[in-house]
Automatic annotation (TrEMBL):
Annotated SUPFAM superfamilies: Phase 1 flagellin
Upper taxonomic lineage: Bacteria, Pseudomonadati, Pseudomonadota, Betaproteobacteria, Burkholderiales
Protein name as it appears in the record: Flagellar hook-associated protein FlgL
Source organism, top-level taxon: Bacteria
GO biological processes: bacterial-type flagellum-dependent cell motility
Length: 402
């Protein structure tokens, strides 16, 4: 077999290039601390590493979501804790306002303090999560959910609940609708809470039905008979406006105002002089309750009838506040359960993260002892190949003749 000089150089150069490439690859593995540099090094391992890396990235993002959810829920719970403290102060002031030795002026001072608490609670209801997103406005997170009104405050947010993906199969609510937390206080089993004044001496009754739901105001009203018991007026207690002027009473008598049909009936007897009936929405909010309380304390109560009215109003306000506190407690419990769930998910997420790192390490990480041994071996083989090539390439017939 005849071997030409070009064949010797071609084969020798190819072998040296291959050895040099293997040496470079080993050096790159050591420098990068990775066994797999390209998918061709280990196709199956590369595919598996890609899947694990994607799962780890999702797990890391879920951890970020959980931190954001924790911040939002913690702030919401803190805000409701402050609301709870304010409402407890209001209940204390109710007790103080019921002290029989207080003058109208002194009760007025208590009413001013209550106004401060009302403004505080409205401010708390409009709290943000620190990123200018309102906590209790539903999806409408860029607009203050409560607007102060003459009757307290009106909810202008929507009924949506915001969620965050905190696990692959779990979306956690991170907000509550403000109207559900600060409103929905049932003052009656019916649509309206119709309460006869405790000083009434007659036997007439009052009932209320909806005539046009679109016209309902949610305000409080009072039906008051004059000192003859033959005429009555209807006053919007929230605005102070007389909506039905003095009207002759005849049983049964129905008047329609602000989407309501108010019916007065002898049952069984006629109304007495100065009899009164208060009408409230059967579903009230915290702000309306405190506003009613302020109005009651600002109303003179120097007469026996006035004192009875005040006592009834304070009793109603106290009952409503109890229900308000219950609403707040339910919401705080919901936020607390969310925080506890996040703690559990954080624990399982951290464990999953460690497993992903371990699996990636098993697939990708370099065995340094083996890599250094391979490096030394490759260097030795390359040197031997280079020296052999020098010896072989120097062989020539002319050298033999000489």
């Amino acid at each position: 077999m005849r071997i030409s000089t070009s064949t010797i150089y071609e084969n020798g150069g190819s072998r040296i290039s291959e050895l040099q490439s293997n040496l470079n690859r080993t050096m790159q593995q050591i420098a990068s601390q990775r066994r797999i540099l390209t998918p061709s090094d280990d196709p199956i391992g590369s595919a598996r590493a890609l899947v694990i890396s994607q799962s780890a990235a999702v797990n890391d993002q879920l951890a970020v979501n959980r931190r954001n959810a924790t911040n939002t829920l913690s702030m919401a719970e803190d805000v409701l804790g402050s609301v709870t403290t304010a409402l407890q102060s209001v209940k204390t002031l109710i007790v103080s306002g019921g002290n029989g030795i207080l003058t109208d002026q002194q009760r007025g001072y208590i009413a001013k303090e209550l106004q401060g608490h009302l403004d505080e609670i409205i401010g708390l209801a409009n709290s943000t999560d620190g990123t200018d997103s309102y906590l209790f406005g539903g999806y409408s997170s860029t607009t203050a959910p409560f607007v102060k009104t003459q009757g307290g405050a009106q909810y202008v947010g929507d009924q949506g609940t915001r969620y965050l993906q905190v696990d692959t199969s779990r979306q956690l609510p991170v907000s509550e609708v403000g109207s559900a937390i600060f409103g929905n206080i049932r003052t009656s089993n019916g649509q309206f809470n119709v309460r006869p004044n405790s000083s009434n001496v007659g036997q007439a009754t009052a009932s209320v039905a909806i005539s046009n739901a679109a016209n309902l105001t949610g305000n409080n009203y009072e039906v008051a008979f004059d000192n003859t018991g033959l005429n009555f007026t209807v006053t919007n207690k929230t605005t102070g406006a007389i909506v039905i002027p003095s009207t002759v009473y005849a049983s049964p008598h129905t008047v329609t105002i602000d989407g309501m049909d108010i019916t007065l009936t002898d049952s069984p007897g006629a109304p007495g002089a100065n009899d009164k009936f208060s009408i409230q929405s059967g579903n009230q909010d915290i702000f309306q309750t405190i506003t009613d309380l302020i109005n009651a304390l600002n109303t003179p109560a120097s007469t026996d009838a006035g004192k009875l009215d005040l006592k009834a109003d304070l009793s109603q306000a106290n009952a409503n506040l109890e229900k308000s506190l219950s609403n707040i407690l339910v919401a705080r419990t919901s936020f607390g359960m969310g925080l506890r769930e996040i703690e559990d998910l954080d624990s399982s997420g951290a464990s999953a993260g460690l497993l992903y790192k371990q699996e990636l390490s098993n697939i990708q990480d370099l065995d340094y002892a083996k890599a250094i041994t391979d490096l030394n071996q490759s260097q030795m083989v390359l040197q031997a190949a280079q020296q052999s090539f020098v010896k072989v390439s120097s062989l020539s017939l002319f050298n033999y003749i000489n």
